[in-house]
Amino acid sequence: MAQCAYHDQLINIRRELHQFPEEGWTEFCTTAYIVKYLRELGYEVLLGEKVVSRKDCLGRDPKLVAQAIETAKERGVCECLLNEMQELTGCCAVLDTGRPGPTVALRFDIDCNNVQESGADTHRATAEGWASKRPGLMHACGHDSHISSGLAVARWVMDHKDELNGKLKIVFQPAEEGVRGAAAVAASGIVDDCDFFLSSHIAMMAKTGEIITSPVGFLCTTKYDITFKGRPAHAGIEPNAGRNALAAACHCVTQLLGIPRHGSGMTRVNVGRIVAGEGRNVIPVNAKLVMEVRGETGDINKFMATETENIVQGVAKSFGVEYNIEKMGEAVDLFNDKELVDMLDDVCSKTEGVTKVLHEVNFGGSEDATILARRVQEKGGKAAYFVLGSDRAGGHHTAEFDIDESSLDIGMKIYAEMLKRLMK
Amino acid sequence: MAQCAYHDQLINIRRELHQFPEEGWTEFCTTAYIVKYLRELGYEVLLGEKVVSRKDCLGRDPKLVAQAIETAKERGVCECLLNEMQELTGCCAVLDTGRPGPTVALRFDIDCNNVQESGADTHRATAEGWASKRPGLMHACGHDSHISSGLAVARWVMDHKDELNGKLKIVFQPAEEGVRGAAAVAASGIVDDCDFFLSSHIAMMAKTGEIITSPVGFLCTTKYDITFKGRPAHAGIEPNAGRNALAAACHCVTQLLGIPRHGSGMTRVNVGRIVAGEGRNVIPVNAKLVMEVRGETGDINKFMATETENIVQGVAKSFGVEYNIEKMGEAVDLFNDKELVDMLDDVCSKTEGVTKVLHEVNFGGSEDATILARRVQEKGGKAAYFVLGSDRAGGHHTAEFDIDESSLDIGMKIYAEMLKRLMK
Amino acid sequence: MAQCAYHDQLINIRRELHQFPEEGWTEFCTTAYIVKYLRELGYEVLLGEKVVSRKDCLGRDPKLVAQAIETAKERGVCECLLNEMQELTGCCAVLDTGRPGPTVALRFDIDCNNVQESGADTHRATAEGWASKRPGLMHACGHDSHISSGLAVARWVMDHKDELNGKLKIVFQPAEEGVRGAAAVAASGIVDDCDFFLSSHIAMMAKTGEIITSPVGFLCTTKYDITFKGRPAHAGIEPNAGRNALAAACHCVTQLLGIPRHGSGMTRVNVGRIVAGEGRNVIPVNAKLVMEVRGETGDINKFMATETENIVQGVAKSFGVEYNIEKMGEAVDLFNDKELVDMLDDVCSKTEGVTKVLHEVNFGGSEDATILARRVQEKGGKAAYFVLGSDRAGGHHTAEFDIDESSLDIGMKIYAEMLKRLMK
Amino acid sequence: MAQCAYHDQLINIRRELHQFPEEGWTEFCTTAYIVKYLRELGYEVLLGEKVVSRKDCLGRDPKLVAQAIETAKERGVCECLLNEMQELTGCCAVLDTGRPGPTVALRFDIDCNNVQESGADTHRATAEGWASKRPGLMHACGHDSHISSGLAVARWVMDHKDELNGKLKIVFQPAEEGVRGAAAVAASGIVDDCDFFLSSHIAMMAKTGEIITSPVGFLCTTKYDITFKGRPAHAGIEPNAGRNALAAACHCVTQLLGIPRHGSGMTRVNVGRIVAGEGRNVIPVNAKLVMEVRGETGDINKFMATETENIVQGVAKSFGVEYNIEKMGEAVDLFNDKELVDMLDDVCSKTEGVTKVLHEVNFGGSEDATILARRVQEKGGKAAYFVLGSDRAGGHHTAEFDIDESSLDIGMKIYAEMLKRLMK
Question: d(Cα D29, Cα D18) in Å, to the nearest integer?
Fold first, then answer.
């Protein structure tokens, strides 16, 4: 298969970013890298609240953000750029061709995982010396390749801008892991004027050469952190004087796990973590639950979320404790518009390297690009999300994750051809 | 031991009433018997709402009441008397000596138990032919002897009324079982003007000849019936559409049983019965819990009751069901006034047949005479409750329960002597 | 549409049986009616343990059976026939043509529902005087029409026996409601030698003229009655001495409702009824749960059933109570064999009155014909189950249920034509 | 009040030890200090397994022990002494007078609390510069004064050894906090030959000058750490494949809190802390509960402990998870022998500074000296535990805790006089 003209760039940038992974909402160095690259190409690049609505950020830890800003300064990111970011990561490149035409948005996500990269010689990044240099953090979901793809597409656009009409927005979205970032990006309004929206993910269940142009089964999900606050008392002397947050939390869990099944489709509920109590002989004061619900459709997920809220309120009443429910992440379902699926099908069928075009394959997970896609669709635009197949060395989110980099050429060609047709 | 002059009456009336036991709030025949006897003696007898506050009746089942009225009619109780009762059982004999002096109240309870009397030849009532003629109902707590004692005292009073001063009220209280009746009698105000209040129970933990003049450890208790009402749905087709009253009830139970221990004293909680649901494949709509809490003091019992209410409300919120909490019974703790205990001690020490006077013996149960006693005390009067020892054939509330009838003579003498001193 | 030759019989027998509905395992009069009819036609009719394996009966209440036998005697069913039944309902007509050929089994279910039939004039059976004469019992799922169809087919076969080859078995199965009867019929081995198995249900989601030749989504299900047995104690005096069966039952429920969702498909769990405890102030001794699990596949249902058993055992251990799990019903999933579906499709396409042939329509419930179908398939035979559309006056299992009797002619023609082809 | 001859030593050693508090099982520096002091006085000092049965250590964290040994080395404790300790803290001074007489054991506990000492100027230790130098650790229960008292008594004994007969053992017990250490000391057999056992606590509910010679209401208690181990699974993709340790833990809590009240006396149960689960979307694998039960008597506590174990086992069965129950601490009730109480009463009545001798005051907590006292009593010896009153600046286990050091003189005199009489 012939490599595309941007082959080396696709790989080099991916490997460079791979070495300094940053988790959701802390991608200051990564954002700085992207911004610099895009501005050198001549893009207008929007930052901070122009791209991310601060009040709609989910699961953003101010302490981690502050640390990350310090780290960025130490690594030489200039203060002026950090000021421009307004403590918010991600950016949006904008190109207006000046010619009438549609507005097209592409979206690439940029954060990493809380995974310790494999130190085994059999792991390519380790063997070749470009593994993560940050303990406990790793691009184990391929977002490094998403960024390098986005930047390569950005360069291709500049190389072909005279052939294109209309307007292009390339969104580099923070905090996809935990489906935390898209809601704030959508709320900023940055994609509200878009006629078309396109995004993709590398690998998943598809091998190199396979493209899934209409994945289905995106699970709607809502992530919550729930806290209960009680009142301490000596467990021996006057247990009655306490308000037991741990008891509330445990009864909350037994109720949450029993949220009814739904007749219209699949549901999920998981309390993934609980920490409660202070000491063996003290009626517990503090309790925290880290949990999530999922539903096959938005309505079903809403049912799960409403039940969750009722249970938390009820338990707080039962035990006389205070409660707090904080939404930590959110994704919705997704329905690719037929016009774009048909175009993708046609493009893929003519793209060198594509061996199989698949439809209706189950995505089997959550992805917050769905929130941006739905925003575009709600405003009258059309959206599609595809899976760019790639052979994997290990599963997503594992220490051995790696992709077949040759698949990046295929993705590049698809994006380029799609832009040609959309912005013709 | 010399029998008192009222010996035969004490036994005959007891045995007659034993054959037609009536459960709480349905004692229409029993009340009619008492009223007739008292009026023949010349007492003014108050009935209906003069003695029982309708809105304060606890655990009163209108269906059972209606049936009992029918039964009473069939058994020849005249309609005029039933009309006078206003569907409320119990009565109060009043005697005003016309001479200045204190107002004294005596209280005797009149209802039976839901117990099937033993058919064994070894059971005296059966062997001698005066066992209960009503299946599933039995005077298994000795209230038949309480009534006969009350009537014998009433006769003694008439026989000695010229020696007495002040005013006497003899209250025949309905529905002591389940501690349901006293609250409504107290609320009628019938004992509000009393300077002294005296009541007693036969047997308990004391043998014939023993009198406990200051029993302690009366457990405060509140009895509740709790219902939840949900919404049905087919459990296979759309379980999400239901509101599960059975699930609410079960979580309510798991929470109730976990109400914290109290640092200041003993507590109890029991859900004695639960009935919920309609069919195997229907999300349950109806659930009922029959429960009680207890506490060593009024404050502790109040703590238990408040926790119960919070839990019921919380669970209803959690499961989106309606709830109802109905108080079905209530008793408080009791502290005999020293003046009356001293008088009882002295009287008992001089009463033939009394072999031992005991103090501070644990009552180990609940008794709603406590509510009347407290009412008198709150209004400035003095109250005492004593246990009239009696050898038992079987435990209280069992099919083999019987008393040593000779103990009734002792009780008679104590009441008579106490009245002599109080109304001197 | 031309009525079939058996039209009057189809309707008259249905309406006659409709008036004397019998619930599962008590269909003695119904069975006697069927046997008499079949034997008059000349069939060999098998009864009792030849058709129903006693030890595999699910959800069979010996008290109801004994009452039903008494009722049958009163209604004149002869003792000899009752003896032949061996207290087991249902039967199997057998016809051996004497000519080589396949063995074909047809299956019709015969029990009624615990539903009070509508007394409204708008309800046809009531208006026309052929409504149920048994309070609380009604053929509200159309099994009356199944019987009349089975008997009409039996007559058609006798009318055409010279054109048929091989052997025919017409199974009249008891206790389909609650999916209780088929397991015992299957275990008797009565269908083990069958090359083809055919059964059907009236109405469901299909209208008159519609035939669903390959319904899908039969839910596997297992029904359990669970009991816990504890030890009584006075809830006030020594609650520690009891073993609380009610508490065990409630914790069992909270755990059962939380059985995890399954990644491979739909699940259900419902505790439809709970009765526990004896009295307000007694630690409860007895508890009973009426429940069911369902799963989209046999494996998933097995997962639910295993989890249920683990929970019951665990809770019994936690609370020191005895437990019993009794299987009360069972159904599996079903996959029609293509050969029979194709044949049904072709037959239906040529049957007068059939307006639409549907495939892959969701059955959305459980049906224990599936157990017989699977038994045949496991032994190497082929099976199919179809839905005979019929306009309904009210939903299945409701007081207003009725069918469009004209659909019975269509069913008759399909069965006849299928037998012609299978036994050619 | 005249200070005793050991006044300065009592205070200086207390303040010195106060600055380097060590928590239970890590008192290596403290033990070294004590050993050095005792050996210089001429005592035989037993260490390691001679005093502490390794396998009976409760709540001993090997990691903390290893760190503490390193710290001890850094602080100059010689390796030879550490070797002698065999990783076990605490010691026992032995003096054999060589003259016939009883064997007497005194017991002083030596560990500190996990409390951050107050930095306020109003806190004397802080103001005067002898506050704890170890963040998060503080002698907030007065064990520093217990040690200085024990060492002063040891010196007094050497100063008066010619007046004493028999044998003396002075036990310095590790890990009293959490009632963890005494069981292992008892199991070593070190007090098995003792005729008399004496121990005490500073302050509690008694003021300077008050001595409680027969405290009551020592709560029996058992402390457990409970862990559940499950199996991970992706909460979205196949929740059924996991074994949910968090769910098990929460149901365990709801059951534990509902352990029945006990008719014979007070009970307590508290789950003071729970940590479970790994991540939001993973079925939780690990769960840990930190809990305790208490009972008014040994039998009641045993009831609570047995119920706990049954519940843990039952829940593990229900959820298919592994479990571990580790006993982390234990204390029993205590009944002072009359002979010693009488002697204490007499001694106190003659001791300068003692203003009030109290009996039957409620201790209202747990103390593991009870285990050593019971061991001595079981072997035929006599035991007593008294409270040495002392005005407090703040409550026990609080950051402001301090004692009135003048009370140490009183304690010194009582111990000395008791030894004079016991070893006369």
Answer: 12
**Which partners does chain D have (≥3 C-beta pairs < 8 Å)?**
A, B, C
Contact list, B291 vs chain C (CB under 8 Å):
280
Cβ B196 vs Cβ B104: under 8 Å: yes
Cβ(A276)–Cβ(D274) below 8 Å: yes
How much is the CA Rg of chain B, to the nearest whole Å? Answer: 23
- Residue B228 parent element (H or E): strand B220-229
Nearest to A248 by CA among A324, A312, A309: A312
**Pair D89, D25: CB distance under 8 Å:** yes
**Per residue in D364-391, pLDDT tens?**
678 999 999 999 999 999 999 999 999 9
E-strand stretches of A140-262? 167-173, 196-202, 210-218, 220-229
Q: Which DSSP symbol is given to A318?
A: H
Question: Residue A227 is which amino acid?
Answer: T
pLDDT (tens digit per residue) in C25-60: 999 999 999 999 999 999 999 999 999 999 999 999
Q: Which ipTM score applies to this complex? A: 0.84
Answer whether D51's CB lies under 8 Å from D88's CB: yes
Mean pLDDT of chain B: 95
On the 0-12 / 13-18 / 19+ scale of CB atoms within 10 A, B240 is buried
Asked if D255 lies within 8 A of C254 by C-beta distance, the reply is: no
**Whole-model pTM?**
0.88
Structure tokens at B305: 């009751």
For residue A141, count other CB atoms closer than 10 A to its CB: 23
CB neighbour burial string for C11-30, b if at least 16 within 10 angstroms, e if fewer: bebbbebbbbbbbbbbbbbb
Mean pLDDT, residues B97-104 taken together: 97
Calculate ∠ Cα D174-D398-D360, nearest 5°: 70
Taking each helix axis from N to C end, the angle separating C7-18 and C143-159, rounded to the nearest 10 degrees, works out to 140
CA distance B332 to chain A (A): 20
Query: Which of helix, strand or coil describes residue B362?
Result: strand
The alpha carbon of residue A214 and the mean position of all alpha carbons in its chain are separated, in whole angstroms, by 19
pLDDT digits (tens, 9 = 90+) for D7-45: 999 999 999 999 999 999 999 999 999 999 999 999 999
Average pLDDT score over residue span D183-187: 97
When comparing pLDDT for D360 and C123, which is higher?
A: C123
Instruction: Tell me whether residues C314 and D314 touch, CB distance under 8 A.
Output: yes
Closest CA of chain A from C331, distance in Å = 19
Q: Which residue bears the tokens 């919120």? A: B317
Residue that has been written with the tokens 């209803």 in this structure: B316
Q: Which of D255, D332, D256, D257 is nearest to D296 (CA)?
A: D332
Cross-strand bridge partners of residue D107: D171, D199
Contacts of C316 in chain D (CB under 8 A): 314
B207 burial (CB, 10 Å; 0-12 / 13-18 / 19+) is middle
For residue D317, which residues of chain C lie inside 8 Å, CB to CB?
310, 313-314, 317
What domains appear along chain D, each with residue ranges and CATH number?
7-217+333-422 (3.40.630.10), 220-330 (3.30.70.360)
Task: Report which residue type is found at C257.
Answer: L
Q: Which of B254, B255, B267 lies at the smallest CB-CB distance from D261?
A: B267
Strands D91-96, D286-295: pairing is: unpaired
Contact in structure between C109 and C86 (CB atoms under 8 Å): no
Decide if B308 contacts B254 (C-beta within 8 A). no
The residue assigned the tokens 């054959």 is B19
Running DSSP on this structure, what letter comes out for residue A266? -
Give me the residue from C223, C272, C279 closest to B272, CB to CB: C279
Question: Which residue in the set A246, A268, A270 is minimally distant from D271, CB to CB?
Answer: A246
Which pLDDT tens digit goes with each residue over D108-166?
999 999 989 999 999 999 999 999 999 999 999 999 999 999 999 999 999 999 999 99
